[in-house]
């Protein structure tokens, strides 16, 4: 990627498709953006987008991991809602049927009965 940066849409699209943006990639994009501008990363630029996607991915993984460690019969609607909110932020919209949060919501619904 020497001298070239991925488009912001490509970075965001990776989140939608479950492809991680690593800290190394964020650093590389920030470094390259700084070299190209001569002033550092641009506010709202590609490095900022990569950092934002990375942070949202980590938040989702943390929330989903916390709930996934619970026994299935202890998953609550609040757990499902928390994961759904993190997943929606990550992908930029409502998670689809079959998503992690949809499956957790189904488990929570069964537990409430």
Automatic annotation (TrEMBL):
Coiled coil spans: none
Superkingdom as given in the UniProt entry: Eukaryota
Lineage, top ranks: Eukaryota, Fungi, Dikarya, Ascomycota, Pezizomycotina
Organism from which the protein derives: Emericellopsis cladophorae
Protein name, as recorded: SMP domain-containing protein
Biased composition regions of type Polar residues, renumbered to the chain: 100-113
Domain SMP: residue ranges: 60-113
Chain spans, region Disordered: 24-46, 91-113
Stored InterPro entries: LEA_SMP_dom
Matches recorded under Pfam families: SMP (PF04927)
């Amino acid at each position: 990627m020497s001298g070239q940066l991925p488009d912001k849409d490509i970075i965001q699209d990776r989140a939608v498709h479950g492809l991680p943006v690593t800290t190394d990639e964020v650093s590389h994009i920030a470094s390259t953006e700084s070299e190209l501008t001569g002033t550092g990363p641009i506010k709202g630029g590609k490095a900022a987008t990569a950092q934002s996607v990375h942070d949202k991915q980590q938040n989702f993984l943390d929330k989903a991991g916390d709930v996934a460690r619970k026994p299935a019969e202890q998953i609550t609607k609040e757990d499902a809602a928390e994961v759904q909110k993190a997943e929606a932020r990550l992908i930029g919209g409502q998670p689809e049927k079959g998503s992690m949060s949809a499956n957790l919501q189904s488990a929570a619904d069964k537990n409430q009965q």
